[in-house]
Amino acid sequence: MPVADRVEEVRMQVNDLAKAAPTARELMQRMVKLLHERMLKYNWVGFYMLEPGTQPPVLVLGAFEGAMTPHTRIPLNQGICGAAASSGQTVVVDDVSRDPRYLACSLETKSEIVVPIFVYGEVVGELDIDSHFAAAFTREHQELVQHCAILVGKKLETSSR
Predict the structure, then answer these.
(1) Average pLDDT for residues 103-116, to the nearest whole number?
(2) Alpha helical stretches, state H, the chain
(3) Is 3.30.450.40 the CATH classification of the domain at 3-159?
(4) pLDDT at 19 over 90
(5) How many other CB atoms are there within 10 angstroms of residue 33's CB atom?
(6) Domain residue spans in the chain?
(7) Reading across the β-sheet that carries 122-131, which strands appear in turn?
(8) What share of the chain has pLDDT > 90, as a percent?
């Protein structure tokens, strides 16, 4: 199946998950499982959420699929995850060995994408995906992961009312 077709198929499945999941937590758990299983180059998929009231701010590992990581708490001034959350911008790294911000979790990781999650315009967390393949995240992948982050942000907004 061509990548664009697989991405579109997964996008539709993610939309269905967002409609069916009763809570944001449930959506995140189902989403990491789906992305990990369906997207062949997504070797580690997880959410990091900002811990409320922590100074300095810290990202805390939430739902994830893949190998255990030693990075369960990441300060905002560390790593690619910290960079994405601090800047509010998607970060795509085609070769983690060439990025000094990379916090090594696995020797197998070659590339990474981190997409911030917004609730009412504020960063509250992020979706982080590692791949064992260099330059694994094309424009289509970036759009899919950003779509996932938007859906989680919307679910968090509706559950906070």
Answers:
(1) 88
(2) 3-20, 24-38, 79-87, 139-159
(3) yes
(4) yes
(5) 15
(6) 3-159
(7) 73-75, 58-65, 44-50, 122-131, 111-119, 91-93
(8) 78
